[in-house]
Amino acid sequence: MTRTTPLGAVIRGLVAGTVGTLAMDALLYWRYKRRGGQDSFLAWEFSSTVRTWDDAPAPAQVGRRLYEGLFQRKLPDSQAALVNNITHWGYGILNGAAYGVLAGSLPKPRVTYGPPFGAGVWLTGYAVLPPAGLYKPLYEYDRVTLAKDLSAHLVYGTTTAATFAALSPPS
Asked: Where are the transmembrane segments (predicted)?
C-alpha cells in the first residue's frame, strides 16, 4: 500500500480545496443567474459590487477584523472586495489542506468523506459567525436558506474529496 506523505497530503489538500471552492462558487453563480443576476462570472466572483464595508459579506468582515486586530490599522472601504475574495478563497483552500491531512492519514481517501466534511465546514460557520455578530444564530434562519447554504457546502466538500482522491497515489 502506498501512503501519502504529510506534505503530499497538505499539497493535494490545498489543490483539492481550490477546486472545491471553485465548484461551490460555480453553483452559487448559477443560482445568482437564475435569480436574474446580470454580472459576468468574473465580476461576480471578484465581488465587483462590493464597494464599502457596509456592502461586504461575512468573509470580508472576518478578514477585516483579522487584519485590523493584527496590524492595529483600519482598512479603507476600497479594500472590501479584495479582502472578501482573499478570505473566502483562503478559507476554502486552507480547509482543503486540513481535509488533506485527515484524509491522507486514512488507508484510502474516499469521495464519501466529502459530504460530512462539507457539512462540518458549513456548521463551523454557524458556530463561529453568530458570536462574532456576523450571522444570526442557526435557528433564526428559515429552512430554505439553510438548505441552500448547506447544499453549496456539500458541493464544496464532495468536490474537495473527489479531487483529493483523484490526486492521491494509487494504493
From this structure: 6-30
